[in-house]
UniProtKB/TrEMBL annotation:
Protein name: Multicopper oxidase with three cupredoxin domains (Includes cell division protein FtsP and spore coat protein CotA)
Organism for this UniProt entry: Salibacterium halotolerans
Listed Gene3D superfamilies: Cupredoxins - blue copper proteins
Stored PROSITE patterns: MULTICOPPER_OXIDASE2 (PS00080)
Pfam families linked to this entry: Cu-oxidase (PF00394), Cu-oxidase_2 (PF07731), Cu-oxidase_3 (PF07732)
Membrane-crossing residue ranges in chain numbering: 5-23
GO biological-process terms attached to the record: cell division
C-alpha cells in the first residue's frame, strides 16, 4: 500500500460493510436540514465583495495527480495543487482582494475551502452547499477580501476524507501591513500510510484498549504509520537556517487527522497566536505545543545556541522520529537527526492562552442555545458512524439562527475518540471547559474535544449563509459528524443529491 487510505472506508471494511453505502446515505438521505427549501434569497446574492481600489492578488491552482517523493525512498500517489505537497504557498497582505483560479485536471471533482477565513458563503468551497464541485476539465474562481491577518490554510472539501488525505492542501497567510517578525515560516504537519506494513486496519480490541487508556487517537494511530512536515519525512525535511539569538515567527498547521505534540528546545518558544488570533499580552511560554487536526498555532522561536537544534514530535508518540525539523546555523550546516528530544509535562494546547481581542467582554445572553453531543454508534444497514445528537448528517439537527443572534453551543464528547470541531464562516469564543469558566477566554474556529470533555462556546450570527460545523478528523465527518448553521431567510441553490450523482 503506497498511499494514504481512507479511514472511514477501513472502519466499515472492518465491519464487513461497504463504505460507499454510507457515503451515499451521507448525501442522499432526507434529513432535518432541508436542502430543498428555496425561501428567502440565495446565498449567491449575499454579501458580494468587489476589489474596488484594493490591491488584487491573483493565483492559479491546478488540481492534478502527482507521484510525490516524501523522502527516505518512499513515494505516494498524491493529488496536489500545482504538483507539490503541500500545494503552492499563498501569501497576501491584509485588505488585499484575493482571486484564485482553480483548474481541475484530476478525474474526480474538487473544490477549495479557505479554512478559517471569514468570507462570503458562496466562496466557502463546500460542494452541494455553497457551490457545485469543479468537474474534471473545468475551472472555478474564488474571490474574497483578506480582512483578517493570520495563519490559514486551504484544502479540498469534496469528499475531503479522501482528497485532503491524498495531499490536496496548502498554506495561506494574510500578513499584517507591518509584520512584527522579519522571518516568517510555515509548517504543515500530516500523516500517511506507506509500505506493505502500513497500519491499514482497525481492530475492536485496540479501540477498547484505547478507550480504557483515555487515548482518543486509537483510530488514526492504526491507520497511519508515517509523519511528514511540508510533505517530507525525517532527514528529508528541509532545515530551518537561523543564527544564535535570531527570532522567527513559525506558523504550524495540522493538516492530518492525528493530534501532534511538538517539543521545542527549552526556553526557545512562546505561543503568539492560535487560529489566526493573537494570544494575551504575556504570550504563552511552554516547551511542548499540542496541535489538533485542522488547528493553527503560531510561535515566536529563538535559536538558543550555535549548534544544531531540533523541533520534533514528542518522542513518546509512535513514529515520532519522522517529524523532526532541524534548526541549523549557516556556519554549521550539519543536520543531526540523532539529537535527543526530551518531552515535558508542560504542554500548551489550543485553549491554554486567552485572546487579545474578544468577541464578548462578558458572557452574553444567548438568543439560540444548541446542545451538541458527540458520540459514536452503529447505523442500521450502514455500519459504524460518528454522530451529533445520535444522528448522522443530514439527519443531524441544524443550528437554526437569524442574523444578529447570539448563539450558545454546549459541546459534549460522550464517545471514545477525539473530535476537533470546526465552524465555517465564523469565530467563536470559548467560555468554559468541564463547567469551569476561563479567566481569559479564547477566540477560535476549532475546538478539540476529547473523550469526556465538554465546552461552552458563543458566537454571533453575523455572516449570512449555510455554514458547516463539523469534526475536522475528516474520516469522522465523512461518517456523519456534521451539522449546518442554517440562517433563516437565505437558501442554498445547490443540490447535495445532484452533487453526489455527478461524482459517481
Amino acid at each position: 500500500m503506497n498511499r494514504k487510505w481512507v479511514g472511514s472506508l477501513l472502519i466499515v471494511i472492518l465491519l464487513g460493510i461497504g463504505g460507499w453505502m454510507f457515503f451515499n446515505s451521507f448525501y442522499n438521505s432526507g434529513g432535518q436540514y432541508d436542502t430543498d427549501s428555496k425561501e428567502g434569497i440565495s446565498i449567491l446574492e449575499v454579501d458580494a465583495q468587489e476589489a474596488g481600489e484594493r490591491p488584487i492578488k491573483t493565483f492559479d491552482l491546478t488540481a492534478q495527480a502527482t507521484e510525490w517523493d516524501i523522502g527516505e525512498e518512499k513515494k505516494v500517489n498524491a493529488w496536489t495543487y500545482n504538483g507539490t505537497v503541500p500545494g503552492e504557498a499563498l501569501r497576501v497582505t491584509e485588505d488585499d482582494f484575493v482571486r484564485v483560479h482553480l483548474k481541475n485536471e484530476l478525474d474526480v471533482p474538487v473544490t477549495i475551502h479557505w479554512h478559517g477565513v471569514i468570507l462570503p458563503n458562496k466562496m466557502d468551497g463546500v460542494p452541494g452547499l455553497t457551490q457545485d464541485a469543479v468537474q474534471p476539465g473545468e475551472s472555478f474562481t474564488y474571490e474574497f477580501i483578506a480582512n483578517d491577518p493570520g495563519t490559514y490554510w486551504y484544502h479540498s472539501h469534496q469528499h475531503s476524507a479522501v482528497q485532503v488525505d491524498k495531499g490536496l492542501y496548502g498554506s495561506f497567510v494574510i500578513e499584517k501591513k507591518e509584520p512584527e517578525y522579519e522571518r516568517d515560516e510555515f509548517f504543515l504537519l500530516d500523516e500517511w500510510a506507506t509500505g506493505s506494513d502500513s497500519q491499514n486496519s482497525l481492530n475492536m480490541g485496540g479501540m477498547r484498549q484505547g478507550h480504557m487508556s483515555g487515548d482518543g487517537e486509537m483510530d488514526t494511530k492504526q491507520l497511519y504509520n508515517t509523519f511528514t512536515v511540508n510533505g517530507k519525512i525525517g532527514k528529508d525535511i528541509e532545515p530551518l537556517v537561523m543564527e544564535k539569538g535570531e527570532t522567527a515567527r513559525l506558523r504550524f498547521v495540522n493538516a492530518g487527522y492525528q493530534q501532534h505534540q511538538l517539543v521545542f528546545p527549552e526556553g526557545s518558544m512562546k505561543v503568539i497566536a492560535n487560529d489566526a488570533g493573537e494570544v494575551t499580552g504575556e504570550k504563552g511560554s511552554s516547551q511542548v505545543v499540542e496541535i489538533a487536526p485542522g488547528e493553527r498555532i503560531d510561535v515566536a522561536y529563538t535559536k538558543q545556541g550555535e549548534e544544531t537544534e531540533v523541533i520534533a514530535e514528542n518522542p513518546v508518540v509512535e513514529n515520532a522520529e519522522d517529524m523532526k525539523i532541524p534548526v541549523v546555523s549557516k556556519e554549521n550546516g550539519d543536520i543531526q537527526n540523532s539529537i535527543p528530544v526530551s518531552s515535558s509535562s508542560d504542554i500548551a494546547d489550543g485553549t491554554s492562552y486567552g485572546s487579545e481581542e474578544l468577541l464578548f467582554e462578558t458572557t452574553p445572553e444567548a438568543d439560540v442555545t444548541y446542545d451538541m453531543d458527540l458520540s459514536m454508534g452503529m447505523t442500521m444497514g450502514e455500519g459504524m458512524s460518528f454522530q451529533i445528537n445520535d444522528q448522522t448528517f443530514p439527519e443531524t439537527p441544524p443550528i437554526r439562527v437569524e442574523e444578529g443572534n447570539i448563539v450558545k453551543v454546549h459541546i459534549t464528547n460522550s464517545g471514545m475518540m477525539n473530535h476537533p470541531m470546526h465552524l465555517h464562516g465564523h469565530r467563536f469564543q470559548v467560555a468554559s471547559k468541564n463547567g469551569t469558566a476561563y479567566g481569559n477566554p479564547i477566540v477560535k474556529d476549532l475546538i478539540h474535544v476529547k473523550p469526556g470533555e465538554e465546552y461552552v462556546v458563543y458566537f454571533e450570527a453575523n455572516n449570512k449563509g449555510e455554514w458547516l460545523f463539523h469534526c475536522h478528523d475528516n474520516n469522522h465527518a465523512d461518517l456523519g459528524m456534521v451539522t449546518v448553521v442554517d440562517y433563516q431567510g437565505v437558501y442554498s441553490p445547490f443540490n447535495i443529491e445532484e452533487q453526489l450523482r455527478s461524482t459517481n
